[in-house]
Amino acid sequence: MRYIFGLLVLGLLISCKNDTKDNNQLELGTYRAWLPIQDNQEIPFIFKVESKNKLKIFNAEEEIMVDEIEYKNDSVYINLPVFKDYLVAKISNEESLQGFYVSPDRNRKVPFRAEGHENMRFSVKEKPTTNVEGVWETVFSKGVEGDEYFAKGIFKQEGQKVTGTFRTTTGDYRYLEGVMDGNTMKLSTFDGAHAFLFSATVTDSTMQGTFYSGNHWKEPFEAKRNENYELPSASTLTYLKEGYDSLDFTFPDTSDELVGLKDDRFKDKVVVVQIMGTWCPNCLDESRYYADFYKKNKDRDLEFIALAFEYAKDKETAFSRIDRLQSKIGIDYPVLLAQYGGADKSKAQEKLPMLNHVLSYPTSIFIDKKGKVRKIHTGFNGPATGDKYIEFKNEFESFISELLSE
Hints:
The protein is α+β, with helices and mostly antiparallel strands. The chain folds into three domains: 21-116, Lipocalin (Beta Barrel); 134-225, Beta Barrel (Lipocalin), CATH 2.40.128.120; 250-405, Glutaredoxin (3-Layer(aba) Sandwich). Helix content is 19%, strand content 41%. The protein is built from five helices and 25 strands. The chain has a nine-stranded antiparallel β-sheet, with no helix packed on it. An eight-stranded antiparallel β-barrel has the order 10-11-12-14-15-16-17-18. β15 (184-190) and β16 form a beta hairpin. The radius of gyration is 24 Å and the shape is globular. The N and C termini lie far apart (93 Å).
């Protein structure tokens, strides 16, 4: 009897142990993930699973918390924060994932793989033959009419590790991280809405490379060292057409109530109008800064109002995207739906015909207490730009104080 009783207890213990272990859940620890793309390239990134429902994605100094993870049968759905893109993968074992990165609003799907217990973003075969630290005058799609644009590469290098970003006239490519492998620089980022790879052959003074965005876009770029290089002023690129000195619009908020710049809420106030989209990482960086600044200063005759241009195919979905953004980062100022079904900039300009164009998401328009447009700032230099981000904040706060004092 004692033998039989012992077997029963052992059986119950084994059963309980099996009940508490779910082979279809992510194992804790660090994973190396990658998106296979064209030209036999891949866009790698690192994430760490902290619990079955929480992980962090890492890009240089950036940490992106992901806390919406669902399990269905043998698959995991990793819903990326703010943006509605997601990773879906079959858990073939606890440490191996295979599936897709899906962007439903843009009808894009890229293969996705991940392996546990890996923390090396790029494999390295050779010691670096040069140091890329410094400033690089850069041109993308050189000579291609309508596609050519300029950028400022800003990089730091410690041993083989490289971090930095490319600034353009319309924003930056956010936190890039990678390596120097011999004379080849490789940088990548994955922020939940965009997956980028920059690969270049480097000499002491030049770069020749290719920029990949997911598996749907690539373009060449070249660069040369130029520590004194500066982009055109962000305050000269977008302006009011002749005959205009003010802005006017009316669009619905997420309650489908019309809100206009002439409403009492904005009268005799300094107003910052933010042209943005919930799908736009630079807009997210800007919105975080604006939301925090507004909370600290909304008792100072200051208002913000955002105009969202959305890829969502219908109004209800677009409103849900805006609600998600506002709740996730704590935006207390109104975010209006200016357009859905696409974020074409020429269409956006039609909604704001007093502007010469909408060149960039985001764009900020500064309006004084008399309702006159005083400045239009194209793009946003986010935290990944380092000193330029600090410079932007100082200039922004100084100009707002100047308008408030009038």
